Amino acid sequence: MEEAKPTGLRGQLGELCYNSGLLGSLQRMRSWWRRDLRILAYHRIMPLPDPATYDFDLELISAPPERFRQQMLLLKRRFCPMRLSDVAAMLDAGEELPADAVVITFDDGYDDNYRIAFPILRELDIPATFFVSTGHIDTGEPYAYDWLVHMILLTDASRLVLPELGMDQPMPADRPARRKLAGNVLDRMKNISALDQAAMIERLAREWRIAPDAVYQDCRPMNWDQLREMSHAGFEIGSHGVHHWMLSKLPAAELAQEIMGSREALLRELGPHPLLLSYPVGSNRSYDERVIAMAKSADFQLACSYISGTNPQPSHNRYALLRLAVERDMSLGWFASTLTLPSLMSYSTPDYLGKQVGTSACSP
Ligand SMILES: [Zn+2]
Questions:
Q1: What's the chain look like in SS3?
Q2: 103 and 224 both lie in a single domain
C-alpha cells in the first residue's frame, strides 16, 4: 500500500492519536455531546503518479486506490455512512441524524471515480454521491483548471503574460516551480469573473497551441453510460454545474443556465432522482445568497460547499454544508483522526471574504 508520511503538525498529531489507540474512546465520548454530520470531499482516486512525468494537477488526487479502500473500511467499522438524499429526507421530517453519520462525496466527475472508487464502494456496500459538471460529461472535454495546469507545465513560451491577473513574468524552467506558479495562477484567477477565467484559459490554449481537444487518459471525465450504471447500482449523481464555473461570479442568465442546465441534463440522462448540488470551487467566494436562492428555486434538496468543517445542525446550513477534504498526503491515521477530531485535524479554509467561515483549502 502507498502510505503517506505526514510531515505537517496536523498530520503528525493525527498519526500520534491513531497509534495511541485512543481514537475509539475519544469518538464515543465526542458523540455523546456533539452529534454533527460529517461530509467527506474527494476529487480523484488514482495511483500516485511520478510528479516528474505527470502532466496534470496533483492537488486533485485525494488518495491512491488501496488507501481509499482502507479509509472506506475504517468508515464502515466506526461510522454510519449515509446517502445524502437520506440526510435530506431526515431533515425534511425533522428527525435527528444517527450518531457518527458520515456522507462520502466526490467533486468534478473524473473517470477514475467510475473505474476505481465505484467498484470499491460497491464491494463494501458504502453509499456515495458523485457531483459532476454535466457539460464535461456531455463533451468529454478536460476540466479547464486542470487544463490550465497542464498548459503551464508543458508550454514552450518563455514568459507567462496574464494581463487579466496583472501577471507578466519569465516562465520557470523546472517543473516544481511551474507547478507552484500554476497554483498561484489558479488562486489569483478565482478573483475575476467566471467568464473572464474561461476566456483567459481559451486564449492561452490558442496562443500556446495546446487545445483541449485530445482525450488524455490522465484527465478524462466520466460518461453518461458510466453514470447510469452507478445510478442504477444505488449511487447518487449530483450537479457540480455545467462548465465548473464559479457560480457567484456569473451574470444572472449564465448562473441560471449553470444550475438549470445541469439539473435538466441529470434528469434527461438519469431519469427522476434526488437533486443534490455541490458548488464548483466551493470556497466562500464561489457562492452567495443569489446562488443559494437559485439552487432552491431549481428544487435542489441541499448543497455542499468546500469549506472545512462538520455540520452540527445541518437543517440550518443545508444549502452551504461544510465538508472535510481528503488529500493525497493524508495517511490512514490522519484520516481517522480527522473524522474523530475534525476541528483539530482537518485542513483549514482560506477566508477570502474576511468573514468567519469554518476552518480547507479550496481545490478546483
Ligand atoms: Zn470542482
A1: CCCCCCCCHHHHHHHHHHHHCCHHHHHHHHHHHCCCEEEEEECEECCCCCCCCCCCCHHHEEECHHHHHHHHHHHHHHCEECCHHHHHHHHHCCCCCCCCEEEEEECCCECHHHHHHHHHHHHHCCCCEEEECHHHHHHCCCCHHHHHHHHHHHCCCCEEEEHHHCEEEECCCCHHHHHHHHHHHHHHHCCCCHHHHHHHHHHHHHHCCCCCCCCCHHHCECCHHHHHHHHHCCCEEEECCCCCCCHHHCCHHHHHHHHHHHHHHHHHHHCCCCCEEECCCCCCCCCCHHHHHHHHHCCCCEEEEEEECCECCCCCCCCCEEEEECCCCCCHHHHHHHHHCHHHHCCCCCCCCCCCCCCCCCCC
A2: yes
